Queue: 3 jobs
Job 1
Amino acid sequence: MLPGVVVKAYNGYYYVRSDDEKTMVSCSLRGRFKKERFSLLVGDEVRYSLLGSEKGVIEEILPRRTMLSRPMVANVDQVILNFAAANPDINPVLVDRFLIIAELSELEIILCINKVDLADQAALAVLIERYSSIGYPVLSLSAKNGIGIEDLRARLQDRITVFAGPSGTGKSTLLNAIEPGLSLATGQVSEKIGRGRHTTRFAELMPLAQGGYVVDTPGFSLTEFVDIDERGLMYCFRDLVPWIPQCRFNSCIHYKEPQCAVKEAVREGKIHPERYESYLAVLTELKENKKGFRL
Ligand code: GDP
Ligand code: ZN
């Protein structure tokens, strides 16, 4: 049997790519999987046997490492949150909101700030410091001038990556700089398709020549509804997490409670006040709408 990764699912067929051989085989699924109603996903690692040169049967499905629900893809390793230094201007409040959903996915997160050719250098340095001090890797990029592209390329190698971030920030341009000919569906296009009635869009994995894959559909978009409760929310702020156990009350949501270690850390400058404001803003939205908030 041969090892491969499902890169595309279409009409009951699975397109399986062997990373070593760089071949693509269209496979059907062994009957027993159908009986078990096992839903095979793009990103799943499988073993298959060949029937002829380009057809095969999937015999075995390996355990999933991760699963992302929007888009539905197995084994994604990391999410890249891409923003633009300008045009459209990066807005830390929006960065914080994207970070909440990215944290919920439990995947590794990399922050990218593209279009640094348009940036005010001092303002950029402040932003980079804010997020790297929380523990996020931050890459400064310019798809236009080739800045940081090698760095980004290295981060994508041998991993499955989903790109997210507001549209117009240069996600497709960056990917084309990494791998000419590869083009990520832009935020706008995929949002439009997502709302269509008949066009359920299935994500595909796009192989990179250097090894690794990029999901062709941007992750969560600005239309996203985020299903989360108050306790879940606080753990999406990495910079709040270390202080939470020191609050006086176990039930503390770091809002109006006395002896709150989180608020104390904000006062002492150990948590950035705007990060805490982002937390409070979403917390307030959760109180109004018990089921979640809109990105
Ligand atoms: P997406 O919606 O995130 O995929 O964004 P696009 O890749 O479609 O890019 C949006 C616009 O930004 C296009 O006009 C690009 O040419 C432009 N753009 C992308 N990267 C850069 C960059 O590094 N610098 C500048 N100045 N413009 C860029
Ligand atoms: Zn507290």
Job 2
Amino acid sequence: MTLFPIILAAGQGTRMRSSTPKVLHTIGGKPMLQHVIESCQQLDVDKIAIIYGHGGEQVQQVINTANITNNAETLVWIQQKEQKGTGHAVAQAESYIDDEAVVIIAYGDVPLIKTEVLSRLANKLEEATLVVLTVVQDDPTGYGRIVRNPQGKIESIIEHKDANQEQLEIKEVNTGFIAARGRDLKRWLNDITPNNSQGEYYLTDCVALAVKEGGIVDALICDDPLEAEGVNDRIQQVKIERAYQAMQAKKLLEAGVTLYDTDRIDIRGKLEAGKDVCIDVNNIFIGKVKLGDRVVIESGCVIKDAQIGDDCLVKANSVIDSAIIENNCDIGPFARVRPDTFIKENAKVGNFVEIKKSVIGKGSKVSHLSYIGDTQMGEDVNIGAGTITCNYDGVNKHLTTIGDRVFIGSDSQLVAPVSVGDDATIGAGSTITKEAPAGELTLSRSKQLTIKGWKKPQKK
Ligand code: UD1
Ligand code: CA
């Protein structure tokens, strides 16, 4: 059985009130369309058609550069120039539909759709001519109603706008996802007419056409309506976002991670966590984040594209972006670790410390109020409070090199390019502009002076 998913994504999405095409709006940091593509790619498929319309170039560009697990070559982009309905949309893909293929129609704005549901939909076709994914909604307003005969057999789908009073009472509705054989689908598409209140070519008319031919139309009822729910506006988007985040949180709990509150964690990407990891409230993980065993993340951190080793403690309100932190490090509170930073094991980065594009050596400590940028730091270094690497001359960035076991006194400035040799000590309050030799004490400080017998000025 060759599966051929066709994803409808040409709709305008006016209700989002956005200049971004609807299917590029994100759930969990990933465009909705990409969620659907990935669910389809996990089926055994050679190609996936995407029917695009509004903002087509932007959609293709974002999706093609997005991190799709499988190859982007499987995607066939087909333009629907005018949006004349779901039936018209599918008809655009006609020349790609093989007679023998099992076509799965999916919507690009239904991000929580699962591979397993798509696969069950296709498998049900073994005993049917057409299979429709349906859900039972307490409030079916706006949806196409599944009309069944007294024996319970599906007869047609009637759109809300075309439904009579009796049909409006039906709570089983069409999700839009269907499966059918290529040959049948192409024949029905040719017979669909826009004779309805909206003047559109309804894909849903395939149901009545199949029944008329004596075919069997079956339904797969989706247990969790959220999995088949489309996003048409920002209200639905946030509802689906929260549902997605709840699913992510549940997966973490199942994997043995401690979360203090499943409603106060956001994963916009992929979070991998080792054993006995503990995550406090209000943390946001973006991109690819990997946490080692026994990592503790206190509250309020934003961690993006980072790798954090075993036994690390990330204290409250720290921001870590594109960094590698080895085992047993202490970060924060209120630390900012910027891209291209490599913090080696047993190191400490304390409060109000910013590190950019630097290596912090094994066991080194930058405990308070410092800026370390473009720096290569050795092992067991101690950086005093308020130390600044002056890496920028207003035009270019320069390197600071600090050897092993260096002690930098508080409130020092290292004016790059500059180097401090192994075992050197820098006196507090120094401005270092030349090489500080290994093993020596270097300081630049005006001599302290006391004026004896000096009198305070008196008020006149
Ligand atoms: C459609 C179904 C309805 C179902 C509902 C579920 C039809 C006629 N109606 O209604 O039974 O209950 O979905 O949400 O199929 N699209 C195109 N090109 C078009 C029109 C739509 O690509 O010309 C795409 C949209 O981008 C969207 C999907 O098809 O992803 C559904 O379109 P939408 O306008 O939301 O359909 P509804 O009228 O809500
Ligand atoms: Ca819709």
Job 3
Amino acid sequence: MEYVTLSNGVKMPKLGFGVFQISKEECEKCVLDAIKAGYRHIDTAQSYFNEEEVGNAISKCGIPREELFITTKVWIDNYGYENAKQSVLKSMDKLKTNYIDLVLLHQPFSDYYGAYHALQNLYEEGKIRAIGVSNFSPDRLADIAAFNKIAPHVNQVEANPLHQQVNAQENMLKRGVQMEAWAPFGEGKSNMFKNPVLKEIADKYDKSVAQVILRWLMQRNIVALAKSTHTERIKENFEIFDFQLSDEDMNKITALDTKSSLFFDHQTPETVDRFVNMIEERKGRI
Ligand code: NAP
């Protein structure tokens, strides 16, 4: 495993296992498979509806808690100071742990300032080892870093070969914020696993396209989260620490950047509407 050191000195495993869109029924087994394969970093969220199952796996896996790195994210409907604070304590219960390694604000909408103050407070009380945000564009990140006592330690954003976030990463570096990549495979959109450039590079190293993508993120010093419900793929995605991409191959991947999201742009009014609807749909389930 490779690690990054956050601006507060906390060590974070560079590769994590993501549990978005893993059902309650499958989640505990998938996390146990991942831990068995060697992952020590698990990424969940209040809005994934599987924190309890992640907690079951944490308590059953036999690995000491301090060797694991657990992230969760506060859902928008739990924003505002008091709600956010209570929701993190509830997440801690579900995860069956008395501290969380990293808590992120899931989206830059509604009262995220109040919620961020709650994270700062929990951090100062020692209940959270690092705090951060997710899906914050460079301007929102600059704002929250400038007007708070503690700048976010991490910003988790979409990043994959077709949407590389080079400028966003430069902005994070300037502010001491660690970049973390969600959807490193773009969930397979735009035929990512069959991309001819990635396939040619993968064949050259006798690796898969998924492994090449994760290796490319490691070499850009980005923490990456990979999700799979298949044991073989979970193992495959972990086998990325025994090879190095050459500068030439890194540059070939750089040339694939389209500079636009494979999902949606976070900075449009339609996206705000989409999240307002999502809050309604998820009410009472979190
Ligand atoms: P992803 O990791 O880019 O892609 C997952 C997809 O790739 C699944 O369909 C999976 O299929 C497939 N896959 C995985 N490994 C493979 C392999 N070796 N070969 C072929 N197919 C493979 O997408 P993601 O789950 O959206 O993102 C990863 C994690 O990032 C999430 O789980 C979550 O923790 C985080 N995330 C955060 C946000 C945010 O807003 N902060 C948003 C999205 C995701 P199978 O499962 O069928 O194997």
